[in-house]
Please model this.
Amino acid sequence: MDNGNKKIQVFDTTLRDGTQAEKISFSADDKLHIAQRLDQMGFDYIEGGWPGSNPKDMKFFEKAKDMDFKNSKIVAFGSTRHAKNNVEDDPNIQALLDAETPAVSLFGKSWTLHVDKALKVSKSENLEMISDSIRYLKENNKEVIYDAEHFFDGYLSDPDYALETLQVAEEAGADMIVLCDTNGGTLPATLREIIDEVMIRIQTPIGIHAHNDSGVAVANTIDAVQAGAVHIQGTINGYGERCGNANLCSIIPNLQLKAGYKCLDDDKIKKMTSLSHYVSEVANLMHPNSMPFTGKSAFAHKGGIHVSAVMREESSYEHIKPEEVGNSRRVLVSDLSGKSNIRFKAQELGIDLSKPKHKKNLKEIVDQLKILEHEGYQYEAAEASLELLINKINGEYKSHFELIGFRIFIEKDQSGEIRSEASIRVIVDGVEEHTAAEGNGPVNALDNALRKALIEFYPEVSKLKLEDYKVRVLNGQGGTGARVRVLIETGTEESDQTWGTVGASRNIIQASWQALTESVSYYLMKSRDLNKTQE
Model:
């Protein structure tokens, strides 16, 4: 669809509305870092918070004054004046001015339910509050973005009054009137009908602010734009109160790559995945793999037929090229995998299975994967283990150490402290090493003992660090004797790169040992190969 690259304003409220989500708490510095990234992306507006409501938001606005935002306007958020105050003396209005932002986002009531029950004022008084507040802010040279809170619910309850609140805002000089689906309960068809009516009555540019309580915030925002809205509000990753806000990481690619609107520069939209993951990291939240466009699984293929088709024609199972939003294609291997998956995955890992000496091994690799997955192994998050498996079957794996045996001792003393100690015997380059080490648990003790045995031969193991350790019970009906899967993610102190390994057994120590030793073996294989290349 071609909309002539019509420009749509992007208004981000991650730093205000997004912080109302459970488990999110940004410091003032966190908010500044995110604001810088949003500015680099070319977002038009960044809503920083509600000045005067808390010290954290005030600190953000104070620091933001000294920063050079090249593309974005910082926005302060607040409400219309209190019913009992003159606008010049209203603390909330004064706080908006004190924030010294070029633009303010002002919300007022559109729904008679809130006018009657929350504000406890007459309809005419509410209209005066809207008018006075906008007019005063305009007199003080502020760009005013008026948020018509609960507009769609208000319209369904009393359409004439809801529209009257917009007309008052327009007459007072609002630069943008944003229709808010604050409860997130409006369905797209209803929203479209209401916006069509608004467009007849209001000449001021219209924006949309949707919440996701019915799971249609993205759809509602796209519908609003197609109905004439030129300003979209939302948050990165859809963070927000209850079920969240409209997800800008989905809205922007849909509008720009599919509907022909212009939200960001083409080179900036390619950084959407990076931005999405960055905000998750700052929020200290796991990024959802299944998130459209930016999720790790957004362009991941598992079924053998799918992979075979994608290898021939990408569009057969991909609605856009993943690179357009800075993401990448992934092929997963599992018991559903066919030869296409393995061939593609091996290529990703730098292994050429088309060589004559390797071609004959392809079926064995597929068959072995099916057997191992049936036993509880899973390679989707353990690509290092997969690479080791393929190399072993291809006869290109060199073992760096051989286990003779290990013992683990766990004791609890009179004080209640539990002590774990592991002793291990391994052969390295024909030399038997016997070491022991303590740890804060049996797996940690085993890890420490193994490193202690290897460090004289492979000093680089001192750089290894455990990033994550997960245990999954595979058959709960087995109780404490159930088979478990252990996934370990490992990295180094000098790099951001990590790799995953897997082990499975009815014995959690055995499963942990498998994943642990494969993480070390993979690192040694890669570091030694790198040294050979450099030589």
